[in-house]
Write a structure and sequence with these properties.
Elements (H helix, E strand, L loop, with lengths): L8 E3 L5 E3 L3 H19 L20 H29 L4 E2 L1 H22 L17 H21 L3
Length: 160
């Protein structure tokens, strides 16, 4: 049996994006953003949680990758912080422009990548198949929620 569920994030005829998230979900996003900001700012204390945010640009050339990280890392962190700022400023909005929704896309994706790293999520993992008493089940549920929200944002931005 399949159910049609209207996306909570969708493009309007005016080219903006309608966001119909419940207050509980907005509060969740609001609470997660400062945690990601702190991880990004504390990047020097690299404990691996931001590993997927700073994936190697050159897999087979450590020197070229080190140069890339040295040259680009600060800019990448600054752009991620700017996205967090934009989401924090618009977290209660019911209508977003494309740039704001792109900031949501980046911030939600970064949250998901960090949480996925912490949980060691892989392609093979089926979160829905985890038992209710599995360790970290709440964190897996949060990962699934972020994945779903990310999917809705991507679908809304898709012009097709």
């Amino acid at each position: 049996m399949s159910f049609f569920r209207r996306s909570r994030i969708r493009r309007t005829r005016r080219g903006t994006y309608r966001v119909e998230l419940p207050d509980l979900e907005r509060d969740l996003v609001r609470r997660l953003l400062p945690q990601l900001r702190q991880l990004l700012l504390d990047d020097g204390a690299d404990d691996g949680r931001t590993r997927r945010l700073h994936a190697p640009a050159y897999l087979d050339d450590d020197e070229a990758n080190a140069d890339y990280q040295r040259l680009m890392r600060e800019d990448l962190v600054a752009s991620r912080i700017a996205a967090l700022d934009a989401v924090e400023a618009s977290v209660d909005a019911t209508e977003l422009d494309e740039q704001q929704l792109m900031s949501w896309l980046g911030a939600v994706n970064n949250l998901r990548l960090v949480l996925g790293t912490m949980l060691d999520v892989s392609e093979e993992l089926e979160i829905g198949a985890l038992p209710d008493d599995a360790p970290d089940i709440e964190a897996y549920a949060l990962y699934a929620y972020l994945s779903s929200l990310l999917g809705e944002i991507v679908d809304a931005l898709d012009p097709g």
